[in-house]
Amino acid sequence: MFMNFRRVHKLQCLQLLTTGLVLCVLMICWEELDHHVVSHMRSYTYRYLVNSYDFNSSFGHNQKDSEGVDNGFESYPYLINHPNKCVGRHSQSWDDVLLLLFVKSSPENFQRRQAIRDTWGNETYAWSELGASLRMVFALGVHRDDGQRSTVQRALLQEGQAYGDLIQQDFLDTFHNLTTKLILQFHWAHEYCPQAHFFMSADDDIFVHIPNLVKYLQQLLSRKSGAKDLWVGHVHRGSPPIRRKESKYYVPEDLYPWSSYPDYTAGAGYIVSADVAAKIYQATLVLNSSMYIDDVFMGICAKTMGVSPQEHVYFSGEAKAPYHPCIYSHMITSHGHAADVRSLWKAATDPSVHYHSRGFLNNLYCIAIRVMLLCRPNYESMYPCKAAFI
Ligand SMILES: *[C@@H]1O[C@H](CO)[C@@H](O)[C@H](O)[C@H]1NC(C)=O
Ligand SMILES: *[C@@H]1O[C@H](CO)[C@@H](O)[C@H](O)[C@H]1NC(C)=O
Ligand SMILES: *[C@@H]1O[C@H](CO)[C@@H](O)[C@H](O)[C@H]1NC(C)=O
Ligand SMILES: *[C@@H]1O[C@H](CO)[C@@H](O)[C@H](O)[C@H]1NC(C)=O
Protein backbone atom coordinates (compact mmCIF):
# COMPACT_ATOMS: atom_id res chain seq x y z
CA MET A 1 0.00 0.00 0.00
CA PHE A 2 2.70 2.33 1.08
CA MET A 3 4.86 1.34 -1.92
CA ASN A 4 1.92 1.85 -4.20
CA PHE A 5 1.24 5.20 -2.76
CA ARG A 6 4.82 6.17 -3.31
CA ARG A 7 4.66 5.05 -6.92
CA VAL A 8 1.62 7.15 -7.52
CA HIS A 9 3.38 10.00 -5.84
CA LYS A 10 6.39 9.49 -8.07
CA LEU A 11 4.20 9.37 -11.16
CA GLN A 12 2.49 12.58 -10.17
CA CYS A 13 5.83 14.17 -9.55
CA LEU A 14 6.96 13.13 -12.99
CA GLN A 15 3.76 14.48 -14.50
CA LEU A 16 4.15 17.71 -12.64
CA LEU A 17 7.74 18.03 -13.72
CA THR A 18 6.89 17.36 -17.35
CA THR A 19 4.06 19.85 -17.28
CA GLY A 20 6.37 22.38 -15.70
CA LEU A 21 9.00 21.78 -18.33
CA VAL A 22 6.53 22.08 -21.18
CA LEU A 23 5.17 25.28 -19.66
CA CYS A 24 8.65 26.70 -19.32
CA VAL A 25 9.50 25.94 -22.92
CA LEU A 26 6.17 27.39 -24.00
CA MET A 27 6.74 30.53 -21.97
CA ILE A 28 10.19 31.00 -23.42
CA CYS A 29 8.96 30.45 -26.94
CA TRP A 30 5.69 32.21 -26.45
CA GLU A 31 6.87 35.68 -27.17
CA GLU A 32 8.34 34.58 -30.45
CA LEU A 33 5.44 32.28 -31.26
CA ASP A 34 2.99 35.02 -30.46
CA HIS A 35 4.92 37.44 -32.57
CA HIS A 36 5.03 35.07 -35.50
CA VAL A 37 1.35 34.19 -35.35
CA VAL A 38 0.39 37.82 -35.07
CA SER A 39 2.70 38.94 -37.82
CA HIS A 40 1.44 36.23 -40.13
CA MET A 41 -2.13 37.17 -39.49
CA ARG A 42 -1.14 40.75 -40.00
CA SER A 43 0.63 40.23 -43.26
CA TYR A 44 -2.33 38.18 -44.43
CA THR A 45 -4.88 40.86 -43.83
CA TYR A 46 -2.79 43.95 -44.07
CA ARG A 47 -2.53 44.36 -47.83
CA TYR A 48 -6.29 44.31 -48.11
CA LEU A 49 -6.62 46.74 -45.23
CA VAL A 50 -3.98 49.23 -46.17
CA ASN A 51 -4.88 49.17 -49.83
CA SER A 52 -8.36 50.28 -48.99
CA TYR A 53 -7.19 53.24 -46.93
CA ASP A 54 -7.61 56.57 -48.52
CA PHE A 55 -4.86 58.58 -46.90
CA ASN A 56 -5.55 61.55 -49.12
CA SER A 57 -8.97 62.14 -47.72
CA SER A 58 -8.10 61.10 -44.16
CA PHE A 59 -4.88 63.01 -43.85
CA GLY A 60 -5.45 65.83 -46.30
CA HIS A 61 -5.69 69.27 -44.77
CA ASN A 62 -8.49 70.46 -46.83
CA GLN A 63 -11.11 68.15 -45.51
CA LYS A 64 -12.03 70.37 -42.60
CA ASP A 65 -11.59 73.86 -43.84
CA SER A 66 -12.00 74.75 -47.44
CA GLU A 67 -9.46 77.58 -47.40
CA GLY A 68 -7.02 74.82 -46.64
CA VAL A 69 -3.91 76.89 -46.31
CA ASP A 70 -1.19 76.20 -43.83
CA ASN A 71 -3.11 74.39 -41.13
CA GLY A 72 -1.54 71.01 -40.44
CA PHE A 73 1.79 71.97 -41.92
CA GLU A 74 3.87 74.51 -40.12
CA SER A 75 7.16 75.81 -41.36
CA TYR A 76 9.62 76.90 -38.73
CA PRO A 77 12.28 79.52 -39.53
CA TYR A 78 15.90 78.43 -39.93
CA LEU A 79 18.20 79.38 -37.07
CA ILE A 80 21.30 77.88 -38.69
CA ASN A 81 21.48 77.22 -42.40
CA HIS A 82 24.08 76.62 -45.09
CA PRO A 83 22.24 77.31 -48.34
CA ASN A 84 25.36 76.79 -50.48
CA LYS A 85 26.18 73.35 -49.20
CA CYS A 86 25.34 71.73 -52.54
CA VAL A 87 26.65 74.35 -54.95
CA GLY A 88 29.82 75.97 -56.17
CA ARG A 89 32.79 73.93 -55.11
CA HIS A 90 35.88 72.65 -56.84
CA SER A 91 34.89 71.09 -60.12
CA GLN A 92 31.78 70.43 -62.17
CA SER A 93 31.72 66.77 -61.28
CA TRP A 94 31.88 67.52 -57.59
CA ASP A 95 28.70 69.53 -57.95
CA ASP A 96 27.02 66.50 -59.43
CA VAL A 97 25.91 65.34 -55.99
CA LEU A 98 25.51 61.59 -55.70
CA LEU A 99 24.14 61.51 -52.18
CA LEU A 100 22.71 64.07 -49.80
CA LEU A 101 23.06 62.56 -46.36
CA PHE A 102 20.82 63.98 -43.65
CA VAL A 103 21.70 62.91 -40.13
CA LYS A 104 19.00 63.45 -37.51
CA SER A 105 20.87 64.78 -34.52
CA SER A 106 19.96 66.62 -31.32
CA PRO A 107 21.57 69.83 -30.07
CA GLU A 108 23.47 68.17 -27.20
CA ASN A 109 24.98 65.35 -29.29
CA PHE A 110 28.24 67.19 -30.06
CA GLN A 111 30.39 64.09 -29.73
CA ARG A 112 28.28 61.91 -31.98
CA ARG A 113 28.43 64.56 -34.70
CA GLN A 114 32.19 64.84 -34.40
CA ALA A 115 32.59 61.07 -34.64
CA ILE A 116 30.45 61.02 -37.78
CA ARG A 117 32.43 63.85 -39.40
CA ASP A 118 35.63 61.93 -38.72
CA THR A 119 34.30 58.68 -40.14
CA TRP A 120 31.35 57.90 -42.38
CA GLY A 121 30.27 61.53 -42.83
CA ASN A 122 33.68 62.59 -44.19
CA GLU A 123 32.93 64.23 -47.55
CA THR A 124 36.62 64.45 -48.47
CA TYR A 125 37.07 60.72 -47.97
CA ALA A 126 34.09 59.94 -50.21
CA TRP A 127 35.47 62.23 -52.89
CA SER A 128 39.15 61.28 -52.79
CA GLU A 129 38.84 57.56 -52.05
CA LEU A 130 35.58 56.69 -53.79
CA GLY A 131 35.13 59.42 -56.37
CA ALA A 132 31.69 60.14 -54.97
CA SER A 133 30.25 63.54 -54.27
CA LEU A 134 28.64 63.31 -50.86
CA ARG A 135 27.03 66.11 -48.86
CA MET A 136 26.43 65.49 -45.20
CA VAL A 137 24.33 67.73 -42.97
CA PHE A 138 22.77 67.41 -39.54
CA ALA A 139 19.09 68.19 -38.90
CA LEU A 140 18.36 69.83 -35.54
CA GLY A 141 15.73 71.61 -33.53
CA VAL A 142 16.44 73.75 -30.45
CA HIS A 143 17.40 72.29 -27.08
CA ARG A 144 14.33 71.11 -25.18
CA ASP A 145 15.50 72.41 -21.81
CA ASP A 146 14.79 76.10 -21.12
CA GLY A 147 17.74 76.47 -18.76
CA GLN A 148 20.40 75.11 -21.06
CA ARG A 149 19.04 76.36 -24.35
CA SER A 150 21.04 79.57 -24.70
CA THR A 151 24.38 77.98 -23.74
CA VAL A 152 23.87 75.06 -26.10
CA GLN A 153 22.69 77.41 -28.83
CA ARG A 154 25.87 79.49 -28.60
CA ALA A 155 27.95 76.33 -28.95
CA LEU A 156 25.86 75.25 -31.93
CA LEU A 157 26.37 78.56 -33.71
CA GLN A 158 30.13 78.12 -33.35
CA GLU A 159 29.96 74.52 -34.47
CA GLY A 160 27.88 75.47 -37.49
CA GLN A 161 30.41 78.10 -38.44
CA ALA A 162 33.35 75.76 -38.00
CA TYR A 163 31.99 72.85 -40.02
CA GLY A 164 29.24 74.34 -42.18
CA ASP A 165 27.06 71.28 -41.75
CA LEU A 166 24.28 72.15 -39.28
CA ILE A 167 20.71 72.80 -40.39
CA GLN A 168 18.56 73.99 -37.52
CA GLN A 169 14.99 75.16 -37.34
CA ASP A 170 13.18 76.85 -34.49
CA PHE A 171 11.20 73.94 -33.05
CA LEU A 172 11.78 71.98 -29.84
CA ASP A 173 14.01 68.99 -30.48
CA THR A 174 11.80 66.30 -28.93
CA PHE A 175 10.67 62.80 -29.79
CA HIS A 176 7.19 64.05 -30.65
CA ASN A 177 8.64 66.60 -33.07
CA LEU A 178 10.46 64.02 -35.20
CA THR A 179 7.95 64.43 -38.00
CA THR A 180 8.76 68.15 -38.01
CA LYS A 181 12.40 67.15 -38.41
CA LEU A 182 11.47 64.87 -41.30
CA ILE A 183 9.68 67.75 -42.98
CA LEU A 184 12.73 69.96 -42.42
CA GLN A 185 14.87 67.42 -44.29
CA PHE A 186 12.65 67.08 -47.33
CA HIS A 187 12.00 70.80 -47.54
CA TRP A 188 15.69 71.65 -47.27
CA ALA A 189 16.56 69.05 -49.90
CA HIS A 190 13.87 70.44 -52.20
CA GLU A 191 15.06 73.99 -51.82
CA TYR A 192 18.84 73.71 -51.56
CA CYS A 193 19.90 70.36 -53.03
CA PRO A 194 17.35 69.14 -55.59
CA GLN A 195 20.13 67.94 -57.93
CA ALA A 196 21.28 65.15 -55.57
CA HIS A 197 20.67 61.75 -57.17
CA PHE A 198 19.89 60.16 -53.83
CA PHE A 199 18.75 61.34 -50.44
CA MET A 200 19.46 59.47 -47.23
CA SER A 201 18.02 60.04 -43.78
CA ALA A 202 19.92 58.53 -40.87
CA ASP A 203 20.06 58.54 -37.07
CA ASP A 204 23.18 59.89 -35.38
CA ASP A 205 23.81 56.60 -33.59
CA ILE A 206 24.07 54.41 -36.65
CA PHE A 207 27.04 53.31 -38.69
CA VAL A 208 26.96 53.64 -42.46
CA HIS A 209 29.44 51.71 -44.54
CA ILE A 210 29.99 54.47 -47.08
CA PRO A 211 32.21 52.50 -49.52
CA ASN A 212 29.59 49.72 -49.81
CA LEU A 213 26.79 52.25 -50.03
CA VAL A 214 28.49 54.31 -52.74
CA LYS A 215 29.16 51.17 -54.78
CA TYR A 216 25.51 50.19 -54.50
CA LEU A 217 24.26 53.65 -55.51
CA GLN A 218 26.66 53.89 -58.44
CA GLN A 219 25.43 50.51 -59.66
CA LEU A 220 21.85 51.75 -59.46
CA LEU A 221 22.74 54.88 -61.41
CA SER A 222 24.51 52.97 -64.16
CA ARG A 223 21.42 50.87 -64.88
CA LYS A 224 19.62 51.63 -68.11
CA SER A 225 16.41 52.47 -66.34
CA GLY A 226 18.30 54.83 -64.03
CA ALA A 227 17.55 55.23 -60.39
CA LYS A 228 13.87 56.03 -60.28
CA ASP A 229 11.08 55.20 -57.92
CA LEU A 230 13.49 53.98 -55.27
CA TRP A 231 12.85 53.86 -51.53
CA VAL A 232 15.11 51.35 -49.88
CA GLY A 233 15.86 50.30 -46.30
CA HIS A 234 14.81 47.84 -43.62
CA VAL A 235 11.09 47.47 -44.31
CA HIS A 236 8.42 47.11 -41.62
CA ARG A 237 5.41 45.45 -43.20
CA GLY A 238 1.95 45.87 -41.79
CA SER A 239 3.03 46.90 -38.28
CA PRO A 240 0.11 47.56 -35.98
CA PRO A 241 -0.12 50.88 -34.11
CA ILE A 242 0.75 50.54 -30.42
CA ARG A 243 -2.23 51.30 -28.19
CA ARG A 244 -0.55 50.83 -24.80
CA LYS A 245 -0.44 54.27 -23.23
CA GLU A 246 2.89 53.69 -21.49
CA SER A 247 4.75 52.96 -24.72
CA LYS A 248 6.97 55.57 -26.34
CA TYR A 249 5.30 54.73 -29.64
CA TYR A 250 1.72 55.00 -28.31
CA VAL A 251 -0.65 56.32 -30.94
CA PRO A 252 -4.27 57.07 -29.99
CA GLU A 253 -7.13 55.91 -32.17
CA ASP A 254 -8.20 59.40 -33.12
CA LEU A 255 -4.76 60.07 -34.54
CA TYR A 256 -4.59 56.81 -36.47
CA PRO A 257 -7.78 54.73 -36.38
CA TRP A 258 -6.71 51.74 -38.53
CA SER A 259 -5.19 48.50 -37.30
CA SER A 260 -2.13 48.52 -39.49
CA TYR A 261 0.40 51.06 -40.74
CA PRO A 262 1.33 51.19 -44.40
CA ASP A 263 4.74 49.68 -45.22
CA TYR A 264 7.61 51.88 -44.14
CA THR A 265 11.37 51.66 -43.72
CA ALA A 266 12.98 51.89 -40.29
CA GLY A 267 13.83 55.53 -39.65
CA ALA A 268 17.35 54.59 -38.52
CA GLY A 269 18.53 54.75 -42.11
CA TYR A 270 16.84 54.72 -45.52
CA ILE A 271 17.44 56.09 -49.01
CA VAL A 272 15.19 57.56 -51.67
CA SER A 273 15.93 58.57 -55.25
CA ALA A 274 15.54 62.21 -56.30
CA ASP A 275 12.09 61.70 -57.87
CA VAL A 276 10.77 60.07 -54.69
CA ALA A 277 12.24 62.85 -52.54
CA ALA A 278 10.32 65.35 -54.69
CA LYS A 279 7.10 63.36 -54.27
CA ILE A 280 7.52 63.15 -50.49
CA TYR A 281 8.04 66.90 -50.45
CA GLN A 282 4.75 67.36 -52.32
CA ALA A 283 2.99 65.05 -49.90
CA THR A 284 4.22 66.98 -46.84
CA LEU A 285 2.52 70.07 -48.28
CA VAL A 286 -0.92 68.49 -48.38
CA LEU A 287 -0.97 65.94 -45.55
CA ASN A 288 -1.78 66.48 -41.90
CA SER A 289 1.54 66.01 -40.10
CA SER A 290 0.14 65.26 -36.65
CA MET A 291 1.35 61.62 -36.93
CA TYR A 292 4.47 62.11 -34.81
CA ILE A 293 6.21 58.82 -35.55
CA ASP A 294 8.35 60.08 -38.40
CA ASP A 295 8.95 56.81 -40.24
CA VAL A 296 5.23 56.03 -40.20
CA PHE A 297 4.48 59.53 -41.47
CA MET A 298 6.99 58.88 -44.25
CA GLY A 299 5.04 55.68 -45.04
CA ILE A 300 1.80 57.64 -45.24
CA CYS A 301 3.39 60.24 -47.54
CA ALA A 302 4.81 57.52 -49.78
CA LYS A 303 1.53 55.60 -49.87
CA THR A 304 -0.29 58.75 -50.89
CA MET A 305 2.14 59.23 -53.75
CA GLY A 306 2.07 55.60 -54.84
CA VAL A 307 5.62 54.75 -53.73
CA SER A 308 6.40 51.46 -51.95
CA PRO A 309 9.54 50.62 -50.01
CA GLN A 310 12.02 47.96 -51.08
CA GLU A 311 13.91 45.71 -48.74
CA HIS A 312 17.70 45.68 -48.76
CA VAL A 313 19.02 42.86 -46.58
CA TYR A 314 22.04 44.87 -45.38
CA PHE A 315 20.08 47.75 -43.87
CA SER A 316 19.81 46.70 -40.24
CA GLY A 317 16.76 48.47 -38.85
CA GLU A 318 17.10 48.81 -35.09
CA ALA A 319 19.77 46.17 -34.52
CA LYS A 320 23.53 46.14 -34.30
CA ALA A 321 25.46 44.15 -36.88
CA PRO A 322 27.86 41.43 -35.76
CA TYR A 323 31.51 42.46 -35.87
CA HIS A 324 33.18 40.40 -38.58
CA PRO A 325 35.04 41.11 -41.84
CA CYS A 326 32.63 38.78 -43.67
CA ILE A 327 29.84 41.15 -42.60
CA TYR A 328 31.85 44.34 -43.27
CA SER A 329 32.26 43.40 -46.92
CA HIS A 330 28.48 43.69 -47.41
CA MET A 331 26.94 45.80 -44.64
CA ILE A 332 25.27 49.12 -45.39
CA THR A 333 23.87 50.29 -42.05
CA SER A 334 24.03 49.08 -38.47
CA HIS A 335 22.27 50.64 -35.49
CA GLY A 336 23.50 51.51 -31.99
CA HIS A 337 27.04 52.76 -32.56
CA ALA A 338 27.34 55.93 -30.54
CA ALA A 339 30.56 54.83 -28.80
CA ASP A 340 32.41 52.63 -31.27
CA VAL A 341 31.97 54.47 -34.59
CA ARG A 342 35.65 55.23 -34.93
CA SER A 343 36.93 51.73 -34.26
CA LEU A 344 34.24 50.17 -36.45
CA TRP A 345 35.00 52.58 -39.28
CA LYS A 346 38.66 51.66 -39.10
CA ALA A 347 37.94 47.94 -39.06
CA ALA A 348 35.13 47.94 -41.63
CA THR A 349 36.87 50.06 -44.27
CA ASP A 350 40.23 48.34 -43.95
CA PRO A 351 41.42 47.15 -47.39
CA SER A 352 41.96 43.65 -46.00
CA VAL A 353 38.18 43.26 -45.60
CA HIS A 354 37.71 42.72 -49.30
CA TYR A 355 40.48 40.22 -49.41
CA HIS A 356 38.32 38.06 -47.12
CA SER A 357 35.52 37.77 -49.61
CA ARG A 358 37.67 37.14 -52.67
CA GLY A 359 38.18 33.70 -54.20
CA PHE A 360 36.10 30.57 -54.00
CA LEU A 361 37.36 29.27 -50.67
CA ASN A 362 37.27 32.62 -48.93
CA ASN A 363 33.76 33.08 -50.20
CA LEU A 364 32.68 29.71 -48.87
CA TYR A 365 34.27 30.48 -45.54
CA CYS A 366 32.44 33.81 -45.34
CA ILE A 367 29.11 32.23 -46.18
CA ALA A 368 29.63 29.73 -43.36
CA ILE A 369 30.53 32.52 -40.95
CA ARG A 370 27.51 34.58 -41.97
CA VAL A 371 25.18 31.61 -41.60
CA MET A 372 26.49 31.20 -38.07
CA LEU A 373 26.10 34.88 -37.29
CA LEU A 374 22.78 35.64 -38.98
CA CYS A 375 20.76 32.44 -39.15
CA ARG A 376 19.56 32.13 -35.59
CA PRO A 377 16.25 32.97 -34.01
CA ASN A 378 15.57 36.23 -32.21
CA TYR A 379 17.45 38.41 -34.61
CA GLU A 380 14.34 40.32 -35.56
CA SER A 381 15.78 43.56 -36.87
CA MET A 382 19.17 42.18 -37.85
CA TYR A 383 20.16 41.26 -41.38
CA PRO A 384 17.98 38.27 -42.34
CA CYS A 385 19.39 34.77 -42.80
CA LYS A 386 19.21 35.07 -46.57
CA ALA A 387 21.81 37.85 -46.38
CA ALA A 388 24.34 35.13 -45.56
CA PHE A 389 24.18 33.77 -49.11
CA ILE A 390 24.86 36.93 -51.09
C1 LIG B 1 -3.22 61.97 -53.42
O1 LIG B 1 -2.81 63.33 -53.54
C2 LIG B 1 -1.67 63.54 -54.34
C3 LIG B 1 -1.23 64.98 -54.24
O2 LIG B 1 -2.33 65.85 -54.30
C4 LIG B 1 -1.95 63.09 -55.76
O3 LIG B 1 -0.81 63.29 -56.57
C5 LIG B 1 -2.30 61.61 -55.73
O4 LIG B 1 -2.61 61.16 -57.02
C6 LIG B 1 -3.48 61.35 -54.79
N1 LIG B 1 -3.66 59.93 -54.65
C7 LIG B 1 -4.87 59.35 -54.68
C8 LIG B 1 -4.89 57.88 -54.51
O5 LIG B 1 -5.89 60.00 -54.82
C1 LIG C 1 38.65 62.73 -44.19
O1 LIG C 1 39.24 61.92 -45.15
C2 LIG C 1 40.43 62.45 -45.69
C3 LIG C 1 40.81 61.60 -46.88
O2 LIG C 1 40.80 60.23 -46.57
C4 LIG C 1 41.47 62.52 -44.59
O3 LIG C 1 42.69 63.02 -45.09
C5 LIG C 1 40.94 63.40 -43.48
O4 LIG C 1 41.84 63.38 -42.39
C6 LIG C 1 39.57 62.94 -43.02
N1 LIG C 1 39.01 63.97 -42.16
C7 LIG C 1 38.67 63.73 -40.90
C8 LIG C 1 38.08 64.88 -40.16
O5 LIG C 1 38.83 62.65 -40.37
C1 LIG D 1 7.41 70.97 -31.18
O1 LIG D 1 8.03 72.25 -31.35
C2 LIG D 1 7.15 73.34 -31.18
C3 LIG D 1 7.88 74.60 -31.53
O2 LIG D 1 8.98 74.78 -30.70
C4 LIG D 1 6.64 73.36 -29.75
O3 LIG D 1 5.73 74.41 -29.58
C5 LIG D 1 5.96 72.03 -29.46
O4 LIG D 1 5.57 71.97 -28.11
C6 LIG D 1 6.87 70.87 -29.77
N1 LIG D 1 6.08 69.66 -29.66
C7 LIG D 1 6.44 68.65 -28.89
C8 LIG D 1 5.50 67.52 -28.83
O5 LIG D 1 7.47 68.66 -28.23
C1 LIG E 1 -4.78 66.78 -38.01
O1 LIG E 1 -5.10 65.61 -37.30
C2 LIG E 1 -5.32 65.82 -35.91
C3 LIG E 1 -5.51 64.46 -35.26
O2 LIG E 1 -6.31 63.63 -36.01
C4 LIG E 1 -6.52 66.73 -35.73
O3 LIG E 1 -6.72 66.98 -34.36
C5 LIG E 1 -6.26 68.04 -36.45
O4 LIG E 1 -7.39 68.85 -36.36
C6 LIG E 1 -5.91 67.77 -37.90
N1 LIG E 1 -5.57 69.03 -38.53
C7 LIG E 1 -6.15 69.44 -39.65
C8 LIG E 1 -5.72 70.75 -40.16
O5 LIG E 1 -6.99 68.79 -40.23
UniProtKB/TrEMBL annotation:
Bilayer topology: Single-pass type II membrane protein
TM region positions: none
GO cellular-component term (any): Golgi membrane
EC number: 2.4.1.-
Origin superkingdom: Eukaryota
Gene Ontology MF terms: lactosylceramide 1,3-N-acetyl-beta-D-glucosaminyltransferase activity
InterPro entries: Glyco_trans_31
BP GO terms, sorted: protein O-linked glycosylation; sphingolipid biosynthetic process
Enzyme's top EC category: transferase
Xref: Gene3D superfamilies: 3.90.550.50
Keyword Zinc part of the UniProt annotation: no
Subcellular location: Golgi apparatus membrane
Keywords, sorted A to Z: Glycoprotein, Glycosyltransferase, Golgi apparatus, Membrane, Signal-anchor, Transferase, Transmembrane, Transmembrane helix
One Pfam family linked to the record: Galactosyl_T
Main location (coarse class): Golgi
Pathway: Protein modification; protein glycosylation
Coiled coil: none
Thylakoid recorded as keyword: no
Catalytic activity: a neolactoside nLc4Cer(d18:1(4E)) + UDP-N-acetyl-alpha-D-glucosamine = a neolactoside IV(3)-beta-GlcNAc-nLc4Cer(d18:1(4E)) + UDP + H(+); a beta-D-Gal-(1->4)-beta-D-Glc-(1<->1)-Cer(d18:1(4E)) + UDP-N-acetyl-alpha-D-glucosamine = a beta-D-GlcNAc-(1->3)-beta-D-Gal-(1->4)-beta-D-Glc-(1<->1)-Cer(d18:1(4E)) + UDP + H(+)
Database matches in PANTHER family: BETA-1,3-N-ACETYLGLUCOSAMINYLTRANSFERASE (PTHR11214), LACTOSYLCERAMIDE 1,3-N-ACETYL-BETA-D-GLUCOSAMINYLTRANSFERASE (PTHR11214:SF21)
Stated family: Belongs to the glycosyltransferase 31 family.
Protein name (Swiss-Prot/TrEMBL): Hexosyltransferase
